[in-house]
Amino acid sequence: MVRISIPTLPKAPLLPPSGLSILPLPQAASYLAQFLENGKGNTVMLTGAGVSVDSGIRAYRGEKGTYSNPNYKPILYHELVEDSDRGDMFSKADVVHSDWARSFLGYPPVRDAQPNPTHIYIAALQHLGLAPKLITQNVDNLHRKASSLLSPTYDKSSILELHGTLAKVHCLKHRHEQTRDVYQDEISRMNPIWDQEAKEAERTGRRPRTNPDGDVELHGVDYRSFSVPPCRVCEREKVKSSMVKPNVVFFGETITPAVRDESLHLISSSSSLLILGTSLATYSAFRLVKLAVEHKKPVLMITTGPTRADPFMGKRLDKMDRVAGDVLGKYLDEAVKTSTGKEVEDVKRYLHTGVVKRPPEVEGPRAEG
Ligand SMILES: [Zn+2]
């Protein structure tokens, strides 16, 4: 009789560690300096959930692209639009009302979130012209808040929100846009009881757990009591009113062709790509990295943990397994010391501002209706 024994193998890492990841911080910052210098002011940045964690915005996807909160039921696009073209837009009333009710209660923490130091550093790279263009997967509006700090008149077109923004809503049929704050106020007026709930949650700090698309979990609530305001632009223009949704790409929805084309154009017209704080779990972001690699553009990724683009390592793509903000902060500290000019002064003024407010480790008490 033959006995087969299987030796216990040491767990091998998926990929050999990149030499870049173990560089001491000053050398990592110098490496970034060289990368940006080679980019000659035409480096495009790509960011994700990792840069917003310090602002209390919870990443909704784990390393493998799965939801980090298994109880979280995302808003599904098809649930909203399935019947809208047949003019039967409220046939999914319960779904719509519950989604909007949750979104109504979940929005204030996102609305009030402040840019953290990493957002400031990224805005600084843009402001200094080192990497003027930014593509983000985040919908939390924090890159724009950071840019407006450095310059209220910053170039609005310098930030492309791949998955939309929570700061706006639009109607499904005509894409009439309005600001989320205005729409949120209208919801408050139409739903005084829910408004009270939201204010109470704010007053006591007992905010319901919020996901990054501005959505909360609520249980045992009768959503049918929740009124969803129609699109007022449709009303004004006397066309058949259409449902309003947050200006974000929902799960199951694809990004608009215009945004997709602009993102691809930004990559193909750039000299290099700097990826910060993202595992590239979404295809719309991964596709951009793939394009950059195919076009033989240098790519530097500064983020922690595995990413979907790791197989490209060595093929024009380098990775530093580090917290992006640490390297950016160190680099900028040095950069502003040796530079002059108005932009440098703007950056110096705000460089070490930014608010760190991490999401609570444990789930707080749930809001009750
Ligand atoms: Zn409309």
Automatic annotation (TrEMBL):
Keywords: Mitochondrion, NAD, Transferase, Transit peptide. One of its GO terms (cellular component) is mitochondrion. Residues 22-339 form the Deacetylase sirtuin-type domain. One of its GO terms (molecular function) is NAD+ binding. Signal peptide: none annotated. It is found in: Mitochondrion. Pfam families: SIR2. Residues 196-218 are annotated as: Disordered. Belongs to the sirtuin family. Class I subfamily. This is Deacetylase sirtuin-type domain-containing protein. It comes from Kwoniella bestiolae CBS 10118.
